[in-house]
Amino acid sequence: MNNKLKIAAGVVGGAFAIAHIGLLGYVIHRPKQPSVPTIQIPTGTPYSSYKLKADKDGYSIEYKANDPAILESQRSLILDKEKKGMFGGSHEKRSEYRQDQYTMDGTRNMGGATGEVGKIAGGVSAECIRADAGARSQGAMAGSAIAAGVAVPAVTGIPYIGWLAGGWALLLGQKAGSELGSQVGEVFNDC
What we know:
The protein is of the alpha+beta class. Helix content is 44%, strand content 23%. The longest helix is centred in the C-terminal third of the chain and has 28 residues, at 162-189.
């Protein structure tokens, strides 16, 4: 019986040894498992959004900087109150609704002008604006020169306020010359 016990212990020990050797071989030469990728998400930009989709076939990233591109604000006010005055009652009912769009820095969008390229909201071209500005400038210089030669010497002799009246005359001549220059510029530049 001692011999049978030795054979059984040898068989169990051999099976145990073979199992350990097989397990060690599997651990050492284990097949590579798919690794999880390291994703570097951009940081440091405010108002950014990310969408990450991952499954067994791969992954995809959707990145939006400055999201939302348009910031909106909606406000509403409903006021329904009764006011009683001196001669009876009056009733006030007011409803207000306001929707604004803002840029990223918080400036409210005032709804700029749209139209043809090179034209502003009134339909005046940039060339006409430049011509009008030049004509106004030339007219203002001519008006102030004429006023300085004619009107200022005439009014500076007024006692106590002559110096003030001279300045007024000069400014009046400058303004009149600017308006006249603008009108002459419109005629010559077809604006």
